[in-house]
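Example: Beta-xylosidase.
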Amino acid sequence: MPKYITMKKLSFIFIIILLTSFSIKTFAQEKSAHNPIIYADVPDESMIRVGDTYYMSSTTMHMSPGVPIMKSKDLVNWQMVSYAYDTLANVDALNLVNGKSSYGRGSWASSLRYHNGTYYVSTFSQTTGKTYIYSTKDIEKGPWKESSFRPSFHDNSLFFDNDGRIYMIYGAGKLHLVELKKDLSGVKEGSDRVLIENASAPAGSNIMLGAEGSQLFKVNGKYYLFNITWPRGGMRTVVIHRADKITGPYEGKLGLQDKGVAQGGLIDTPDGRWFAYLFQDHGSVGRIPYLVPLKWENGWPVLGVDGKVPDVLPGLPANKSLIPGIVNSDDFNRSKGEAVLPLVWQWNHNPDNKFWSVTQRKGYLRLTTGRVDTSFLMARNTLTQRTIGPVCSGTTSIDVSNMKEGDFAGLALLQKKYGLVGVKFKKGGKSIVMVSAESGKPVEITSIPLNQKTVYLKAECDFRDRTDKAHFFYSLDGKSWKSIGAQLQMQYTIPQFMGYRFGLFNYATQTPGGYVDFDYFHIANHISSED
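Written out as C-alpha cells, the predicted fold is:
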C-alpha cells in the first residue's frame, strides 16, 4: 500500500467521481418525466382521472373536428382518442364562405367531467354565441350527444355537485355562478349570481388580464377554484380561491408565479400524489402543457418546488416521443374498418367533403378544388396537424399532373404569418414556389420551373430557445433536397391564437375542378441541421 497519493492520482479519482455523478444524474433524469409534458400546442387543458386512466380535453378553436380528447396511463405520455364534435356549426364563418372566417374563435377552453358513468365536456363559442355541452358513455369511441344554449359562457367550468345540482362558473375578472337545468338544456331562471367580484385581487391591483380560465374542484369537502390572471408588466399567474360552499364566500391567494406557467387545475394519482396541470405560452409552437407537483398545507394546494416549476418530475415515467400519440405520419393507405382520417388530422375550418378523398386513388389523399379562392387562408380543405418541439420536419410527395391553370398546391406552415412551398400552375407552365407571409402579406420569394409530374416538399421548424425559424425545401427525386426561398421567422399571433401547423393544401384562383394527389405526409422530430 502506498503511503501517499500523488496529485495526478487525486485528479484522476476526482474526474472519475464527477463522471460517475454526472452519469447517475443523467440516468435518473432519463428515467423521469420532464417539462414540458407535451412540446406542442395543447392549450386550455382540462383533465380528469377515471380509475387508473387520465383523460384530457383541449382547445383547437376553428379546426374541425374540435375539442380533442387525449388519454394517458401515466400523466406524461398522451394519445389522441376522440373529438367531442365533427363540426361545431354550419355557419359561414366556420365554413370559410362569403369572405368570413373563424380564425382565433370557434370553440375555446373546455371543461371535462365524469359523473355517474357519463363523460361530459363543455365549451363555448364567440362565433355562434352559444354554450355547448357534449356527453357520452364511451369517451374513446362515442357517440357524443350535443346540448347547446345561449348565451356563450366565457371559460366556463362545468361542475356536478354531490347533491345532484349542476353548475357553471364563468367570466373574466368578475366571476359568475349559474345553475343548469337537469337536462343541460339551459340555465335555471334567476340562478345567475356574482360569485367573486374581483378574482384577480390576489395577484395585485395592476392587472392586464382579468382572472379567467375557471376550473372548479371539490377536495375533502372544500371547493377550490383555479384561475389565470396577468399582472401588468408581469407574467401569467395562477390564483386560487377556496370556500366551504359552492356559493361562497371565497378566500383567495396567489397560487404560482413562475415561467408564465398558468391556467389549469388539479389532478391526483391513484397512489395519492397531487399535481397541477398548466400551460406556458411558448412562442410559435403554441401553448404547451406542464405538470407542477403540489402538496397540501393548511387546506391549500401549494404549487411547485419552493414555488418554482421544476424541469424534472421524479416519480413519473420518462416522456416518450409525441409521434405517434399526438402527431403522426400518414401514407394514406386505408385497410378495411380503418378511420378515413386518423385523429392526428384536423381540417382548417369545416371541410367540404365533396372535394377530398383517400379512396379515389388508393394510397393517396386527393384534394380537388371546388371553387375559386383569392388567398391561402381563405381556401377550404387544408388538412393540418400540429408542429412539435424542440424541432420537427414535415415531408410530402405530390402528383401535380391534374392541376388546372391558376391552381396552387403544396405544403404549408399555417398561421397568420404563414409559409408555403408548393406548385403553381400559371401561364401554361408549372413552377415550384416558396411564399412567405412573414410581413403580414404573402410574397412569392422564389419560383423554379417544374417539368415533371411529381415533386417532393419539406418544411422544417426550429423552436429551440424560441428561435422560431422555419426553412423550406424541394426535391425532384425524394433523395436530394434543395433549400428554396427565404427563412420564415415564425410568430404566434393572436388573430389565429394557435401554434404553427403543417398543412396540405390545394386551391384554385381561376377555374375549379383541378386536383392533386398527396402520396404521404411524414413527420419527424429532427431537422437537417442535426443530421
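The first strand starts at residue 33 and ends at 34.
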